[in-house]
Every structure is written in structure tokens, then in C-alpha cells.
Amino acid sequence: MCGIIGYCGHRPAVPVIIEGLKRLEYRGYDSAGVAFIQDRELVSVKAEGKLANLENKLAAQNVYQATSGVGHTRWATHGLPTEKNAHPHCDAARTIALVHNGIIENYQELKKELAAAGIRCQSETDTEVLAQLVGLYLKEKGSLAEALSKALGRVEGSYAIAVVSRDNPGMLYAARKHSPLVMGVGVGENFLASDIPAFLPYTREVVFLDDGEMARIDAGSWQVMDVATLAPITKDVKHITWDVSSAQKGGYKHFMLKEIFEQPTVIADCLAGRIDRQENRAILPELDDIPAPQRLFIVACGTSYHAGLWGMYLMEQWAGIPTRVEIASELRYREPILGPGDTVLAISQSGETADTLASIHLAKARGAKVIGLCNVVGSSVARESDVVVHTQAGPEISVASTKAMCSQLTLLTLMALVFGQKNGVLPADVAANCLPALERLPAELDTALPAMRRRAKELCRIYSEARSFLYLGRGLCYPLALEGALKLKEISYIHAEGYAAGEMKHGPIALIDPKFPTFALAPLGDLYSKAKSNLLEVQARGGKIIALTNPGADLAVDHPWEIPLAWGPISTFFILPALQLFAYEMADYLGKDVDQPRNLAKSVTVE
Ligand code: F6R
Questions:
Q1: Which end of the chain is more exposed for a tag (fewer CB within 10 A), N or C?
Q2: Is 326:336 a contact under the CB 8 Å cutoff?
Q3: Residue 112: its pLDDT value, please?
């Protein structure tokens, strides 16, 4: 997830672009850049790190004359967060510069084609491949619109792009497919951006671009056309009433809520380029050169640990790999039986968690191989692992982790499939059903989320007086019960305990009374009848129950909560946001600081 902006107007473009990028910085902040035309030359200035570094560089160069240009703030997906990989990217002849948000899935293939035509890419990014392709077709077609149309026709994946061209100063082109792009319509100035806040101080008149559309703007006019045919498309200009601060959250009250609602897109991004549809196989090129582990140690903290626990079930059942899951702060001070031939899978959103890093060091010192599963490209976990698989969830701003876990579960599913394929033990029904179910998920989840939020809101009002909750789950729902309890306690400050449902009778059942509610995870499936009998035990002691289940279930509990059922473990992707939404709505109802709960930090870089 990156932020892009384009400006054409009567003001110096660079300050407008930089201000816009500051308002988009939540979309990515590992490097940034701008491009504009000056003295008939394409100028591109880029800097690694925060936007302030780019500002300092621009200040030193005094380059403020241009009145049009593009800018980008990056969240690395392909290639390290270095200056070389920062956007904008240019073609070999420096006729165009392009900024991009999205993932070009077939960039390796296109890169080979470019190499055959004598064009060498300078960076490791998928975006430069597109810039080079546009440059190549521009020579052939002579028109930028036609070159863009042809190049975008070759691209698989997702994109929102904005392009500045040396031979058309004062004019920008943009296009989108599966990545957000809006146009701001001002007086004597027009804007392009990933998100409205980028240009909100200048205009509230917006045109939302749809997939397959291309836009051309200059200071006084704009036009939208079909990216494939270039036929004009009529668009409505909409007036929006947001203020700047709410707009940064995309209209959501909190980043946590925004990130929960981003999960359908996160799943789609995590799957991009990782499914071979013809063969119905999962592909993770990062793992191509390593065999399936003989023994796997999953190591992580907090929410990432819960993701790991969930992943263990799949690694065992689908890939036949003996798997242990370790809390990193415990593993590092044990004498684990770990050595050459073992594989450690370190899971971390931030890639900077001190205990997880210490476990990586321990594993490497003992000769084990380390796979990092991590969201932040260029982070310590990414750099110190032997092999790294990136989750592609985009920046997570809210302290409570939500979309990161969703991305970890998606990647753990793909990893279990890949290792199952490598070991030749993937069960036939999994091979047949899992990938189609995953691919249906983004649309299904997107449809389901609003109703789930409504139900979460109703239920938290009923239970807002509770001082303690017991979360129960079995099988794959056990790690989710732990996660539901963690989310509730960390943002609403209500005590909650996650428990394996079958363990309840060995102790916690003593706590049950009418004031101690149980939040049960009881989806239909193999373990449904077991979950049902555990709930009868709770009811027999006068306990109140919220039960997450599916249409067709016959639970006679106080508050059933029906969510969609998907194939096998893919149902998890509906259970997780329900738990997150319940915690979110409870914390918001109780007036807590949802995005920055007390005593917590987003990245725990100390012991
Ligand atoms: C909970 C939460 C934490 C993190 C944990 C690990 O909402 O955010 O429990 O999951 O601190 O962080 P990472 O994944 O960055 O290693």
C-alpha cells in the first residue's frame, strides 16, 4: 500500500505535492519521491526514509518552479526500501516518470521481455517494469494515452498510477485497477490521489475513478476514458463534506476500524501473484529453493503468536510437518532441542519485536534455517531471516493488530499448501477446495462486514457492564479465542480469558455465573457438536452466552451471532473480524482510546 498524488495548476507543484504526501503518509513511509518537468527535462528527486528526508533534499535543490508533477510515499512490496527503489520510476530515455500503488504480478515475465529488447531495469521494483514498458510503447505509438493503454493491457495485478511526461508538461495521466484513485477538481487546478485527504485543503469536489478507467488532467480541464479503448466516459463530480482529520482515516472514526474493513483488500493483495490458476496451485517463489521443513518451530509474540498457533493445525494436517509454536520470550531463555535440519518460522508484523529477533539469533546460532513472515519490508526480521515471505498488509497504524493477523493467516494457508505440495501429502479435498475458497473470500467478506459490525454494536451494548469474559474455542477456533480475548482486553480494558473449550471443565467452569459471560466460537463443522455440549455446561451454571456460529446451527443460547460459513479453515476469515469488531465496538462504546490503548506500543523493541 503506497500513497500517490498528482497536481496540475497555478501553484508551485512541489509544496502542494509534499503537503499531500504528508496527509497520505499513513499509507506508507519507507521512502518518498516527486517528479516534474523543469527546463524541458524530467526531474525526479527521491529519498529513503521518512518524508522529511525528501523535504530536506528538495530544499537544498531549490526546485519549486514547476506547476505540475507527481509524488509518492512508499510501502515496499518488491525490493528493499532504498532510494533506488523509491518512486517515481522513469523509462530508459527519461521521457516519462510514473508513480504506482499496487502490485504487478507478472513483472518478472515483463522484465525478461524488456531485457530481450535491450532495456535493463535499474531497480528491483515491479513499478519500474511498467514505466519502462510505457517508454517502449511511447516510441512505437507516439501518443502517451495509447502507450499507457497498451502497457496497462499487458499488466496483471493491481495498480493506481499517475504519470508525468517530458513532452506534455502541464498534463498528467492516471489509471486504476483494484487500487484506489480519486481526482480532485479545483478552480484552475486539478489533482489525482490515492485518497481524498491529499487534496482536501484545496477542493471538496471529487471524481471517483473506477477500475478500467484512465484520466487526463491539466490545470483547466479533465477527462476520463476507458483504458482499453480510450473512449470517453462521463463521470459525476461529487461534493464531499469531510474534514481533514477524519479524511485521513478514510471517513472511519478510528484507524482500527479502517484496518478491520481493509481486510478484504489485504487478502486480495496477499494472494496477488501467488496462485497458479491453471494448475490450481499455490506459489511462493521465496520458498522455491528450500525443501519442506522436517520439523517446524513457529516463533512469535502476541497476535502474531496466535496466528502461528492457527498455522500449526494446517502445517500438520496439510503438509505433514511436525510443528511446535513458541512464545518468543519463552523460547529465547530455554534450551530448546533445535539445530541443523530444523526450520524456524518467525512471524512478526513490525519485524522489530525484540523477543522474536532474539529467537531468530538463537535459531541461527544453533544452525537452524529461519523463514521470516513479516509485513515490513527491510525490517530486522526481514533482513536477518534466511528467507523472507512478506505479508503485504500495508502499514498498520492502530496499536491493536487486526489486518496484519488476517494477512498472516492468508500466508500461513499458502505456506501450508506449498509445503503440502512439496511433500506430496496435500489432501485431495484441500487441493481442490482451498484456493477457490480463498479467491472468493475478498468479495464475500466485503459484503459481510457491515452486518457483522451492526451485530457487534448491538451485542456490546448488552454486555457493556461485564467485567470479565471467557472466550472458548476448539481446534482452529482455539487460537482465535485467545485472539478475541486479547483484543477485548487490550482496547476495552475488560478482563478476558481465552481457553480451549474442552479444558473449561478442568477449572475455569468454577468462574461461571450470570455475571460472567462466555463468548463461544461454535462454527458448523467437525467440532460443532463438541462446542455445543461445552455450551450446555455453561448454561447449566447460569452463564450467559454469545455464540459465533453459522446459519443452520441449532444453538439455543442467549445471543447467537450468525456469520457466513466458508470452506474448512477459510471460515476463520469471518470469525476473526467478528472478534475484532466486538472488541472495537465495546472499546468505543466505553469511550476508550481505541487506536492508542494505555500502556501499549505498536512495536515492542525492548524486552
Ligand atoms: C496485539 C498486538 C501485539 C503484537 C505483538 C507482536 O494487538 O498488536 O500483541 O501482535 O507485539 O508484534 P509483531 O507482530 O510486530 O512482532
A1: C
A2: yes
A3: 96
pLDDT digits (tens, 9 = 90+) for 457-480: 999 999 999 999 999 999 999 999
Give the tens place of pLDDT for each residue, 332-367. Answer: 889 999 999 999 999 999 898 989 999 999 999 999
CA 339/CA 188 separation, integer angstroms:
66
Confidence of residue 403 (pLDDT cuts 50, 70, 90): very high
Q: What are phi and psi of 97, to 5 degrees?
A: -130, 140
Q: Enumerate residues 6+ apart whose C-beta is below 8 A from 510.
A: none
Q: Tell whether omega for the bond before 291 is within 30 degrees of 0, i.e. cis.
A: no
| Mean pLDDT within 277-281 | 92
CA distances from 549 to 10, 311, 401, 409 (A): 57, 21, 23, 20
Active site residue 602: yes
| Separation CA 185–CA 192 (nearest Å) | 9
For a pocket test of ligand 1, which of 255, 301, 309, 399 has the largest count of ligand atoms closer than 8 A to its C-beta?
301
Query: Catalytic: which of 2, 8, 270, 477?
Result: 2
- Range 329-368 burial, b when 16+ CB lie within 10 A, else e: bebbeeebebeeebbbbbbbbbbbbbbbbbbbebbeeeeb
3-state SS string for 255-305: HHHHHHHCHHHHHHHHHCCCEECCCCEECCHHHCCCCCCCCEEEEECHHHH
Q: Which CA distances in Å does 544 have to 140, 148, 463, 512, 562?
A: 71, 60, 10, 9, 17
Give the relative orientation of helices 263-271 and 403-423 as an angle to the nearest 10 degrees.
Answer: 30
Q: Which residues line ligand 1 (CB under 6 A)?
A: 301-304, 348-350, 353, 356, 400-401, 486, 490, 603-604
Contacts of residue 341, defined as CB under 8 A and 6 or more positions apart, other chains included, come to 294, 295, 368
In whole angstroms, how far apart are CA 136 and each of 96, 124, 572?
11, 19, 45
Q: Say which range, 95-109, 232-246, 583-597, has the weakest mean pLDDT.
A: 232-246
User: With left for phi above 0 and alpha for psi between -120 and 50, is residue 66 left, alpha or beta?
Assistant: beta
Over residues 252-270, the mean pLDDT reads 95
- Give residue 524 CA to ligand 1 midpoint distance, Å: 29
212: left (phi over 0), alpha (psi -120 to 50) or beta: left
- Angle subtended at Cα 486 by Cα 518 and Cα 271, rounded to the nearest 5 degrees: 110
Considering only CA atoms, which of 403, 436, 404, 402 is closest in space to residue 417? Answer: 436
**What are the tens digits of pLDDT across the range 484-525?**
999 999 999 999 999 999 999 899 899 999 999 999 999 999
- pLDDT above 70 covers a percentage of the chain that reads 98
- Can you say whether the dihedral through the CA atoms of 291, 274, 475, 398 is positive or negative? positive
How many Å lie between the centroid of ligand 1 and the Cα of residue 206?
37
The rounded radius of gyration (Å) of the Cα atoms in the chain is: 25
